What we know:
The chain has about 280 residues and is of the alpha+beta class. Helices cover about 70% and strands about 15% of the residues. Among the domains are: about 55-130 and about 195-215, no CATH class; about 135-190. It is built from 6 helices and 5 strands. Strand 2 and strand 3 (about 95-105) form a beta hairpin. Helix 4 (about 130-155) packs antiparallel against helix 5 (about 160-195). The protein starts with a helix and ends in a 5-residue tail after the last helix.
Amino acid sequence: MYKKILALSLIAIGFIFFTGCSQSVVTLNDNTESGYNDSYSYNLLALDDETTPERKIIYKADVSFDVRNLEESSDTLIGLMNSDEWFDEVVMNSTYHYYVIRIKTDRLDDFIESLKDEFTLRSYQLVGTDISLQYQDASNRILSLEAQLARLIELYDQATLSEMIIINEQISDIEVELQELEGTLSQFDSLAEYSEVVLKFYGSSVVSESPFFNRLGNAFLDGWNGLISFFEGFFIVIATIFPFALLIGSIVIVVLVSYRKKIKQKKALKEVASALPEKQ
């Protein structure tokens, strides 16, 4: 009888224990599926936000146009630029203008479209260079160095004289590296904020809607201008060396005249000597 009661009691205690454990597990799973997982997901999102680098892209556009009047085109170009945009390089000649311009990146597309509306497009190329990882690496390095610097400053207050000397050297090295990294970030920011536009204007009276005829006409004019430039250069070279040639030629003529005069004198003396009677 007692054995049956004891067995039933053990079975009841085991059932209660098993039920309590099951409820605990269910409760834990419920928390995991609701609050804990939400918190974990949030932490993952926050981690992604912290580790994903800020997008930094450097754009460079290379564009060329055929224009009828280079001077008017230059004035139009200046009118299309904002006051905070500038020229890095300008090369001009009678048939060709070359510009390197810094244009705000957020209005680069509008600037190119404005040029296309004003002039006849010959070629266009846009290249983007992603420097996000380099920028993030430099930023992380700055944060690390700033933390090291703060720690060194704390240690400096409790350091001995010899330790102070070592800490000062480390602080100086960190400050130099920080300046270099901050300069790199400033350069990256400037390059990303202002895009480089290499712009070429080809001046010609032959400007049509067909790029082929534009190139054909400009090739002929370039060849003609090249021929004229060749003769101009040739005559300039002749004019440059003419004084030297004149001086050298005069000296050569004087030397030749003197030499011939001496030859004639020697010949005359021989003729006189031969005409004299021989002594017996």
